[in-house]
Design a protein that fits this description.
Elements lengths: L2 E6 L4 H13 L3 E6 L9 H6 L7 E4 L2 E4 L1 H11 L12 H34 L6 H21 L13 H13 L6 H4 L2 H11 L2 H4 L2 E2 L2 E2 L10
Parallel strand pairs: 1-2
Antiparallel strand pairs: 1-3, 3-4, 5-6
The protein binds glutathione.
């Protein structure tokens, strides 16, 4: 049975990371679309897979795994000898990668998500942006990206000098920021702009987007 990935019909930043790893590793898979607009992620059947009612979920012959970063790490290690390495093995390179992965979780994701929710998610559903929440998250991200600018002045990628999962973890949500009215990935300094431009230009990412919009849908899928 092919690997199954349950993902939102509507584009999702967390799913984006998993898709990128699958493409970097050239692993075929089947997408099981979950229509969050119809609350398919809240059904008892879906909650049996993912008790937190979130996407994505991986099903590998009955081995169910959720949390996008855990799925990415599993796939990167399982297919270590295939495609791009994604997780270094040399201890210092691996430590630098772990530093980058922690930077994303602690300093990027907590700010990017409210910007995307307030600037894109709510308006798409006909709701109103909470300007205070949005502005506070933009200010927080701006401050953090100033530190990224320093880090990326001494290394090519956020997890060291090689492209790693730490970069992958940034792409999905980072790419949505512009659609949420936030230009920080290009305006935070030359190093951040160079880095984010480079990681979002990878074919493993561009194949899932078209004209700047995520077109990830079952119809657009080509997992080969
Ligand atoms: N930490 C989770 C977050 C997943 C997540 O927030 N997924 C979004 C779609 S991108 C979702 O399911 N949102 C629905 C909800 O939280 O109710 C992961 O990385 O997999």
């Amino acid at each position: 049975m092919p690997l199954k990935i349950y993902g939102p019909v509507q584009a999702g930043g967390s799913l984006g990371a998993v898709l990128m790893v699958l493409a970097e590793k050239q692993v075929p898979f089947e997408l099981v679309p979950i229509d969050m607009g119809k609350y398919e992620h809240k059904t008892p059947a879906y909650r049996a897979l993912q008790p937190f009612a979130q996407t994505p979920v991986m099903d590998e012959d009955g081995f169910i795994l959720f949390e996008s970063r855990a799925i990415c790490r599993y796939l990167a290690e399982k297919y270590a000898d295939r495609g791009t390495a994604l997780i270094p093995t040399e201890p210092k390179a691996k430590a630098r990668f772990e530093q980058g992965a922690s930077i994303e979780f602690a300093n990027f994701h907590p700010y990017a998500v409210p910007i995307i929710m307030e600037g894109l998610g709510k308006p798409l559903k006909g709701g109103a942006t909470d300007k205070r929440v949005y502005d506070a998250a933009v200010a927080g991200l701006k401050e953090r990206l100033a530190a990224y600018e320093v880090v990326l002045g001494t290394q090519r990628f956020i997890g060291g000098d090689e492209f790693t999962l730490a970069d992958v973890f940034h792409v999905g949500h980072g790419a949505f920021l512009a659609h949420a009215g936030c230009d920080l990935m290009t305006s935070s300094g030359p190093n951040v702009a160079r880095w984010f431009g480079e990681i979002t230009a990878r074919p493993s990412w561009t194949r899932w987007v078209r004209d700047g919009d995520a077109v990830r849908s079952t119809a657009a899928y080509d997992s080969e």
